[in-house]
Amino acid sequence: MIMKPFILLFMMWAAAAAQDAPARGLTQTARPSQTMDRGRIGSEAPVPVKPLTWRGILVDAGCKDRSIANLRTPPALTPAVPPDKASADKSDTRTGSAAHDGAVSSHGISVDAKTAQAERAGSMRTLTQDRLTRQMDPSCAVNAGSRAFALLLADGTLLNLDQGGNTKAFQAFQSSLQGMDILNGNAVGEKPKTIIRGSRRGDELKVISIRLQ
Length: 213
Known about the structure:
Blueprint: H1 4-20, E1 52-60, H2 68-71, H3 85-90, E2 104-106, E3 109-111, H4 113-124, H5 129-132, E4 149-153, E5 158-161, H6 163-175, H7 177-183, E6 193-201, E7 204-212
C-alpha cells in the first residue's frame, strides 16, 4: 500500500517525458532539419546543368596544331589533281631530258615507254581525290576523315564534343551539300559555322542537337 504513491508518481513523470520528447528531438519522428543525414557528403543528387546555345566554327578535334591562330586559318588542303600524263610522257622530271617516245631515263637507267606507263598507272591508281581529301588537314578543317569534332567559340575557347556529339556532327556534315562534295573528293575541307544546343562540363560539350550553317 505504501508503494502505490511512488508508482503513480513514476507513471505521471513518464507520461510528461513522452510528451516533451518530440520537442527535444529524441524520437524517430524528429524534424527534417534534425535528421542524421543532414549535410552528409554525397547524399544530395547532382544539380543538372542547364542546356545552352553555343555558336562557333566546327573543327577537327584530332588535329595536332590546336593553336587559336591555326584553328582560325582557312582550310589548307586542295583537291587532288593526278599528274598530267601527257606532260609526264614528254619529259623526265628528275633529269629534265626529253622523252618524246614515252621512255624514262634516270641515272643511266632507261625504261621503255610501255613499262613506264604501266608502272605509272599502278602507282597512281590509289591516289584519288576522295582518298586525298580524307587526309588530316593541317589547319584542322573538317574533311572526309574527321571523326572527332570540336567547337571554336568567338573568344578562342575550344570545346570538344562528347561521343554522342561526334556522331551527330558527322551525320550533319555528311548530310550537308559541302560535306557530300568533300566525301566524294570534289571539295577541300571546311570549317562550317555551327550552332549547338547542349551543356558544358569543363572543356567538353554534351550535345543535344547540332546544326551546320
